[in-house]
Amino acid sequence: MDTAPATIYTARTVHAQAAVPVGAFLVTGERVTAVGSPSELREAFPFARVRDFGDGTIVPGFNDAHIHLGLTAEDLLHLDLSHAAVSSVDGLLRTVRDAAGSAGPGEWVRGARYDDVKTGVVGRWELDAAAGDVPVIITHIAAHWGVANSAALAALGYHDDSTPPPGGDLGRYADGRLDGRLVERALLDVLYPATGKGESPIRPSTQDERLVGVRRAVERWHAAGLTSICDALASPADIALLRRARDEGELTLRTGFLLAVDHYAKAAELGVGSGFGDDHLRMVGVKGFVDGAIGGRTCLLSEPFSGTADHGLQITGTAELREQIARVHADGNRMGVHANGDAAIRLLLDVYEELAATLPRPGLRHRIEHCSLVDDDILRRMSALGAIAVPFAGYAAYHGGALESWYGAERTDRMFAHRSFLDAGITVAGSSDYPCGPYQPLLGLQSMVTRRGVDDGALVGGGQCVSAAEALAVYTVGSAAACGDEGRKGRLAPGFLADFVVLDRDPLTAEPDTIAEIGVQHTYVGGRRVWTRAE
């Protein structure tokens, strides 16, 4: 760990996100206190220690404005069923079978990050054959639907004659029997306590168990260059977990969070609102939902998914959504509302515009989480409101050509519209939505620059490509603004927090399709080294 009263940091390249070129910066305590050339700073501060990273490149710390730490901490305690981990249906079922064989009485087998496109389709009967009477539930990588076996369906109270809950659906085989798919509220209400709805027979993990997951996530994310995040769906239990992690020195990531809207009334009674907390753990705003997922193919669309009559799902009713947002807005707090499809975004903008007209809150800029499928009218309306877009950075790289098969070429050229947002003057933040997308910021940068699938090389909406410099700004300055931190994060400038990353190569000059391969050497938070690569 580096400690010194004052330290000058320099490298061959420093991208400070400043108005003028910076070759070095001075850190005192947790903040940058001066910038300039190495010689200027050495002369002005002769007693400061100098740390020269040689041929490396320094950038402000990467900031993921929409990621899920609480959810990841839970997932890391269960089976990793990602395509990278299991590779095939046989591999997935073998993993489930092994876990079921060692499960104790009353225990469930849980797995996450299942990808039906890359790995293959798994249903109720396949899970029955693998696990027998042991309840099994696996969640899709999009986290908006999952698959359960017969034992799990029975424990959850679902049967062939069940009616889906409002905002949810139950998948069925051609003969009408349940196929095990639990879609949106049918899954969320029993698996994710942060939604604040429903009850579940699944034993919740203890705080001690989840703290292990936090440690694992923080280490992985620091290794990828992340210094700040916003946990985009937090319950009171999640916040208690984060507070404990911070108090015990485990939460070295600067962490903001969006409080799940169902818990907002209690927080408001306690006087807790946007900005509550400190530089290490702070409430950014309140989270709501309109529709479903892009990768899960449940978002709300004006035109149906390609080759189908399916327009997706609206998770929260319009009247309830309006009531939720109105209360938060009236209190002067920021909303971050999940809206993927164009129909969902328009519905949300209707509410935002109504409130802006009837109850102005100058300077209060609400967010649209994901904001995936836009058009010129949506861009115009967002710009007029000053709304902030938080789109997926890495989805083009992860999903590749599958996106075009679901949405068609014309729509994919309007998805994750970083180019259009920037051209319209809309603040746009960097976001992975992990575990729904890859968490590595450098892969996010590459995806925004190339718009090519990593596995298939498919060009996905090439009209939305941005420059590497613009992508870096999205993941630093843009994310800071989305979290209300534009005056203290995202730049290496006097008064800003000394959060930065040292890279092997310069992402602004690297070949675009190699940006994700750039290595992270060191990650610093508040002038303190929190991760370094083993030599």
UniProtKB/TrEMBL annotation:
Pfam families membership: Amidohydro_3, HUTI_composite_bact
Q: Which SUPFAM superfamilies match?
A: Composite domain of metallo-dependent hydrolases (SSF51338), Metallo-dependent hydrolases (SSF51556)
Q: In the record, what terms sit under GO molecular function?
A: hydrolase activity, acting on carbon-nitrogen (but not peptide) bonds; metal ion binding
Q: Where is the Aminodeoxyfutalosine deaminase/Imidazolonepropionase-like composite domain?
A: 23-47
Which stretches make up the Amidohydrolase domain? 50-530
UniProt keyword Hydrolase, yes or no: yes
Which controlled-vocabulary keywords does the entry list?
Hydrolase, Metal-binding, Zinc
Stretches that traverse the bilayer: none
Hey, what's the signal peptide range on this chain?
Answer: none
> What InterPro entries does UniProt report for this protein, alphabetically?
Amidohydro_3, Metal-dep_hydrolase_composite, Metal_Hydrolase, MQNX/HUTI_composite_N, YtcJ-like
Which CDD domains does the record cross-reference, listed alphabetically? Answer: YtcJ_like (cd01300)
- Stated name of the protein: Amidohydrolase
